[in-house]
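Example S7 (structure tokens).
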């Protein structure tokens, strides 16, 4: 994955004070996930359905 060409975004719930932890990107067939404090570091990719299920468990 060429993370330089991917549009990464943070959750609207991120604090903006450097405390953000995760950025995600739509990679068309998968969802990319990385540490926002280490943009050049490792990234993982997950299936969109798995990501949606994970996010839904975080909803209050």
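Recovered sequence:
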């Amino acid at each position: 994955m060429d993370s330089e060409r991917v549009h990464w975004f943070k959750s609207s719930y991120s604090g903006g004070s450097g405390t953000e932890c995760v950025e995600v990107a739509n990679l068309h067939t998968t969802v990319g996930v990385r540490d926002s404090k280490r943009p050049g570091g490792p990234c993982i990719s997950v299936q969109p359905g798995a990501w949606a299920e994970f996010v839904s468990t975080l909803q209050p």
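Notes on this example. The first helix runs from residue 48 to 58.
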